[in-house]
UniProtKB/TrEMBL annotation:
Keywords (A to Z) from UniProt: DNA-binding, Repressor, Transcription, Transcription regulation
Domain BetI-type transcriptional repressor C-terminal per the UniProt entry, residue ranges: 91-188
Positions of the HTH tetR-type domain: 23-68
Matching Pfam families: TetR_C_6, TetR_N
SUPFAM superfamilies: Homeodomain-like, Tetracyclin repressor-like, C-terminal domain
Protein's organism: Leucobacter chromiireducens subsp. solipictus
Entry-linked InterPro entries: BetI_C (IPR039538), Homeodomain-like_sf (IPR009057), HTH-type_TetR-like_transc_reg (IPR050109), HTH_TetR (IPR001647), Tet_transcr_reg_TetR-rel_C_sf (IPR036271)
Name of this protein: TetR family transcriptional regulator
């Protein structure tokens, strides 16, 4: 009849666990495609072809869902990079692989999720906590590599936690800037960003920058739906 909407088809019956997993998977896909800000009951319902009320039944708090979505994307990213790092020999090679995985191009979707996390986390305690935890996890991973290098005599003695915070801040800042610069065609090439960070890291660790050249390892295959790094 004129002016009336077609009735919504009934959602396929699923177990509570399967429905919740479906909603949270859709949130991750939506975050990577459009950003954390795009996650809502209405957008998830439209993506899955179900009623917004059903989304709300399984995700009562959108704030918590956004925080969990961010954590899941970052944790998977870290796990994938960790696997790459474990395939390298020695602290120098492992550090080089980690930095290249973070700085090489083609991973703008995850970078954008991090940028959203920093911005939206200013007004969401749940998201701020999730971002802080994931930042700490990345810093810990870097600390483990550098500490092993110091013990092995590959790197000079230094304040490792402060070094890790500084390096991750530099990486995150350069990658976040590249998102905006790319929109106007003025992005610094990923290789240039990598070389800059490598030079600074080598100086801080007291090693020749050429020491990292031997680890010219590709980041490896990209997992479906999630990029292995933040750029």
């Amino acid at each position: 009849m004129g002016g009336m909407e077609a009735p919504r088809s009934r959602a396929r019956r699923m177990s509570p666990e399967a429905r919740r997993a479906q909603i949270y998977a859709a949130a991750r896909e939506l975050a990577l495609a459009e950003g954390l800000h795009a996650i809502s009951k209405r957008t998830l319902a439209a993506r899955l072809g179900i009623a917004p009320a059903l989304v709300g039944h399984y995700a009562v708090s959108m704030e918590s869902l956004v925080a969990e979505t961010f954590s899941a994307i970052s944790a998977r990213e870290l796990a994938e990079v960790h696997a790459l790092v474990q395939g390298a020999d020695g602290p120098r090679d492992r550090l080089a692989v980690l930095l290249r995985a973070l700085l090489e191009g083609g991973r703008e979707d995850v970078t954008a999720v991090w940028a959203d996390g920093w911005s939206l986390g200013r007004r969401s305690e749940a998201l701020a906590q999730a971002v802080h935890e994931q930042m700490s996890a990345w810093e810990t991973a870097l600390c483990e590599i550098v500490t092993a290098g110091v013990r092995a005599g590959d790197f000079r003695e230094l304040d490792v936690p402060a070094f890790a915070r500084g390096v991750m801040g530099m990486v995150d800042g350069l990658n976040a800037q590249a998102l905006v610069r790319r929109r106007v065609g003025a992005a610094r090439e990923a290789g240039e960003r990598g070389e800059l960070v490598m030079r600074v890291v080598a100086l801080e660790l007291g090693v020749d920058p050429r020491a990292f050249a031997a680890s010219d390892r590709a980041p490896g295959p990209r997992a479906p739906g999630v990029a292995p790094s933040r750029d």
